[in-house]
Amino acid sequence: MFGFALKSTFVYMLWNKYKSQTISIVVSALLLVVIFSIYDDLFTIVKISNKENILLLFLSKWILVFAILIFNWYVFGKIHLKKPIEEKVFSQNNQTTTQNKEILNNKKLKTKSDVILQKYMDKDVD
């Protein structure tokens, strides 16, 4: 039962993260199947009746296929456009962490216990 919970959680996380891309791939695959099946049917009809329209039929098929591929390329391209924005935020956070590290590595800084010890050390010296 625990294995099923892990598997379903993993699938749920993937679905939430890549839902639009998965739907786009499935719809595109279905459209390509429909386009090729319609093309085969129309090709057999045009081959029998009129040979002049075969080139137009061939070009229209490949224009539709390329349109689907370009659409998918655009949808998947949006994923890569989001990454540089996250990297800029990380680089700004990285600058603040380097400033914090410089402050923490500074030897002049004293903790509260160092201040208390120094206070009592100064009293003993007097």
Q: How is this structure best described in words?
A:
- With 126 residues, the protein is mainly alpha-helical.
- The chain has one domain.
- The protein is 90% helix and 0% strand.
- The chain is built from three helices and no strands.
- It is elongated.
- The termini are far apart.
Give a short account of the largest sheet.
none
| SS content category | mainly alpha
Mean pLDDT: 75
Indicate the low-confidence ranges by residue numbers: none
Order of helices and strands: HHH
Number of structurally distinct domains? 1
Shape: elongated
Comma- or semicolon-separated keywords:
126 residues; 3 helices; mainly alpha; 90% helix
SSE arrangement:
Layout: H1 2-49, H2 54-104, H3 112-125
Question: How would you briefly describe this protein structure?
Answer:
This protein is mainly alpha-helical.
